[in-house]
Specification:
131 residues, mainly alpha, 89% helix, 0% strand, elongated
Amino acid sequence: MNPTLVIWILAAVVAVLLGREVGKWAYGASEKLAVKKRAAQKLSGRLREAGLKLIPSLLEDFAVGDVNDMLRRIEDVCKIIDAGSDAIEKELQSTFDAVLTKKLASPEGLAYIKGKALEAEQAAKALEAAK
């Protein structure tokens, strides 16, 4: 058999095997990223249910692969924080209200809130006594 032909056949076999391994590696990396994106979508939904708006939108942009919008939203959040805007307080207040509403909907949550209210009353009495 011609040595040049053997070299070409071996080169083709090596190229196919190498291509197969690179393909498996790329598919594995793609699957890992897909798992992270699905987790980001789930977390985004949970955070929205809790009353947050800024962070879930960032996670949704990551999940769909919209890097430009994600970076723009990060920049917007930085501007809000730097400006000392009340937007962060409003977002946290809406989260607090959502959690409070959820707690009030169950007997365990209601008992928890009653316990915290009792603790607050005792702390207020202790402050008054200290004056």
